[in-house]
Each structure stands twice: as structure tokens, then as C-alpha cells.
Amino acid sequence: MFKDNLRYSRLKKGMTQQELASRLYVTRQSVSKWEQGINEPDIETLKSLCSVLGVTLEFMLSDNSVEDKSFNLNRTLLFYNLLTAFFSILTVFVLLRFLPEVIPAHWTHGQVDRYGKKYEILLHLITFLIFAATDFIVYEFCKRGREKKSVILFHVICLVLTVSYEIFILVIHSLSVSDANLMSYIVCVMLAFFLSIFLAMSPYVTPPNKLLGIRTAFTLGNGAVWKKINGFACVWLSVTTLPVLALNMVFVSVWALMSFLLYIIPTIAIAVYYRRLQTK
Question: pTM of whole model > 0.90?
């Protein structure tokens, strides 16, 4: 919006409202009202404003402000962090299902020096919840301020810590899964990962992105189509994954990979819907 773009451009130039007002031969109160969205300058003043701040008229009048984009990135990173924590928590319960009753619980110099009950792995949930909760709290504090870029680095740090800890958990505990349960275990971990990816496709939670989702010239060139097809795909794929994951958690089988054939149904539904959007 104009008011956000004006404030961003003024601060980038290192100018106060009074300094900008003096360059434009208007009062400081006028600049303040512009930045509050109370009113806007006339076209001639707007051109002078763009010249003083070194920006184009198109940028100044753009609906997608730089601050909005920064906030969207902030929100998107938070969402990805929460989904990573969600995947990590799911894998803890997957491990709980497939681990034997007694597992290695502590190592010294690479050697197991203590065994414990498999339910001790539930303590890992605390770590993942702390990462997610801390990131969310920082996000909430940040979005009330004006400098929303300051928290992006914190999001990245939380993401790296969560992923690193998740890899550590999977590496040390996967070795305890028996050969008889191994195939179902691998499939369940894959399904937990797929579910997180499918949820991340939703354009209703995170703004349209070019990383995840159905990326074609048709969808990338039309914002409305991007939202429709990826919202549809998110629901179908997620709803399919949940029962498939539950079945593999309950019924251990060497044929677990065959359960992926069930994805034929949502794939056909998505293809049909995509075709209908193209023909409209």
C-alpha cells in the first residue's frame, strides 16, 4: 500500500518526516498523515515524492508493499517451522509404534552404557515443542512491530535446529527397529513427511509460493488458479495420507509400499479438476 511503501522508502533513505516535508515544501503533519493512510498527496506532489526518494511511481502505488512481502516471508517461515515440528512429532509416535520395548537410552564414546523403556523417546517431544513454541512467540512479538525482517534469521535458526535434532533422533533410533518391522516403519516415516509437504501446499495458510505446489505455466501465471488447484490438492492428498498412515501403523506388512497405490485416487481427482480449470 502507498502508506507502507512511503514509510519504507523514507526510512531506506535515512530521512525523517520533517526532512522529507522540507524537500517537498509541505508540512511534517502532511507526511505523517500520508504514512497513516489518512490522505494521499496530489499527483504533482506524488511525482516529486518519487523523485526525492528515488523510486518509481509504480512502486509507490503498488498494493504489495515491501513490508507486506517481508511479513509474508516471516509468516511463511513460521509455517514451515511449525510443519517441520509437526513432522518431527509424528515420527516420534512412529518410532514408539515400531521400536522394541527396551532400547539403547544413553551412549558414552559411542558405546551404549544404559538401556531404557521405549517410552523415554516421548521426552523428545518436549524439545520439538520448545522449538515450535519459541518460534511462534517471537513471531507474535515481531508482527506487532514495524521491523518484521529482524525475526527471519531466528526462523532459520529454529528450522536448522529442528531438522538437525530430527535427523539425530531418526539415526540413533532407527537402528533398533527390527527387520520384520522395517518396511512399514520406512513407509510411515515417508507418509509423515508427505503429509507435512501436502499441508505446506495450502495457499490459504501460506501465500502463493513457487517452491511447493502444482507448478505449471497455467498455475504460476494465474493467482486465482494457483489458489484453487493447490487448495484442492492439499485437501485431497492430506485426507488420503491420514488413513494410509494409520493403516500402516496398525498393520505391519512387507507389502507396505503397495499402500502408495491408493494415491491414484487423489491424483486422478486433481488431474480432472486441473483440466476443468483449463477449459473454463
Answer: no
